[in-house]
Specification:
Number of helices: 8
Number of strands: 5
Shape: elongated
Helix content: 40-55%
Order of helices and strands: HEHEEHEHEHHHH
Largest sheet: 5 strands, parallel
Structural class: alpha/beta
Distance between the termini: 28 Å
């Protein structure tokens, strides 16, 4: 278990305001208006569909209000014990929970429900298809379930260009094409890449171009694909 880190630049921190909803407006609206404690929420969808952004946004809002939160991942060791000061429990990667973690998650869910602690979980599959024990799978489908979809290419481009413009960075079409072809297409990764490009360009005294991106990757010892 860990407190969710928000160790990226303040402009890039996941919030509800900077979430690009695309087809996921219903989930974003629900979580942004959530009054704790409320019914459990489960988010599902493929990678880069916005699950992590929305969960981090709710965590950030809770922490800004002085509430304590916990973030549990499928890889975290057991036991998972509810703490009396927690107001929100997030469980990520539910589709990858081991048998021991499934037992821990079920016990934690029951404790959170009994003590009025908000539950938010996510995975790549809907509850009915999760490869989990029946009682946990049923619990994950109890409350509000939202299916999330990755942004369309045009929405990803618009969001990236809007952020670049906000930073005073001109992204030519060839740079945009290069970034989208050679980097993971989720916005969180692209925004972090933009952070790195901004710093690298300022350090070199050059504008952002494809050769600059290639130079940054070379100096970081990273391949051009899957950086």
């Amino acid at each position: 278990m860990k407190q969710i880190p928000l160790a990226i630049g303040p402009e890039s921190r996941p919030t509800f305001d900077n979430f690009v909803p695309g087809a996921n407006a219903a989930a974003a609206t629900h979580l942004a208006a959530l009054v704790l404690p409320s019914a459990p929420v489960y988010l599902w969808g493929p990678a880069a569909s916005g699950k992590t952004h929305l969960m981090q946004a709710l965590v950030a809002r809770c922490q800004a209000g002085g509430l304590s939160t916990a973030w549990l991942d499928a890889a975290d060791p057991e036991p998972w014990v509810l703490q009396p000061h927690w107001a929100l429990v997030v469980v990520d990667r539910c589709d990858e929970l081991s048998p021991a973690a499934q037992h821990a998650a079920f016990t934690l869910f029951e404790a959170a429900a009994a003590q009025g602690v908000q539950w938010l979980a996510a995975g790549r599959l809907p509850p009915v298809d999760l490869p989990l024990r029946d009682d946990l799978r049923t619990r994950l489908g109890w409350g509000h379930v939202f299916a999330l979809e990755p942004l369309a290419d045009s929405e990803t481009r618009a969001a990236l260009r809007r952020e670049a413009d906000h930073r005073g960075i001109f992204l030519a079409d060839d740079v945009m094409d290069f970034l989208l072809a050679r980097f993971p297409r989720d916005l969180s990764h692209l925004m972090l890449t933009l952070d790195r490009l901004d710093d690298f360009g300022l350090a070199k005294g050059r504008r952002v171009t494809v050769p600059l991106v290639r130079q940054m990757l070379a100096e970081e010892g990273l391949p051009e694909t899957g950086a």
